[in-house]
Amino acid sequence: MKLGSDRGCVVDTSNHAPIPSDNRVCYASGAAFRPERVRPHGILWEGLSPLDGAPIVAIATCGTNNRKTGDMVQVWILRRDVEPHTAVRSGQDRSICGDCPMRSKEGFTGRGCYVQVPQAPFSVYRAYKRGSYRPVYPEAFKGRYVRWGAYGDPAMLPHWLVQACNASATGWTGYTHQWRYEWSEWARGTFMASVETPKGEEAARRAGWGTFRAGRVDGSDIGRAVLCPSEGGAQCADCRMCDGRDVAVFIPAHGPGAAVVPAERLSRR
Ligand code: SF4
Known about the structure:
There is one protein chain. The chain is 20% helix and 19% strand. It is α/β, with parallel strands linked by helices and 269 residues long. It has one domain. The structure holds iron/sulfur cluster.
């Protein structure tokens, strides 16, 4: 692990080693560093994707107008070396989204993900490249609610990082499509397995995961899952059922992606 890169942030080249606490100084300013007084807004971690070893970054931002989540710190997981929309076109977004079926082999064509990549993720990436973000440490999450993976899959991050931030935070939500991989097992009990079909839900539940599934628009395939309270107007910041707990959550599919992803692609899951 190398601490204190040219941009003043922590680069974790081993991908899994924790930051030694005695090294927690503010590299950017050289000033005495009080992590608990810093807003959770900046570079949380830079390292390598556990899937393909590509350079990735986790950036936390405050101040969201997302009506579904409510007031939560948003964590963006991006490629460090390529603009997010270019990564979607070239398939390099696999480093941060893995095998999520909402991706498409043809870039934006046939893509079902609700995230508007050329908008918020690109703004965050541009600010990162401009050097607008300072390092932010887990203590800064104190008293906050965290949404892991406003874009990107949080299982791509190291366990120690998520654990340290969640230990400070008041609550969190997160979803992973990587639950079939052995290397993502640490995320069971912390994030929900994101599943697409009742079959996938069953498999993930058997493997001990809490699940989140977007089903038919009319909700007819809810089965024994619990309806996401956002359907009744609740916000994630208040609900926080998607914190890895042992429950199956269901939401009727919505948004443009619901109609775009071919049923055949999902039925394989
Ligand atoms: S179940 Fe709760 S935390 Fe999960 S998506 Fe719905 S409102 Fe958000």
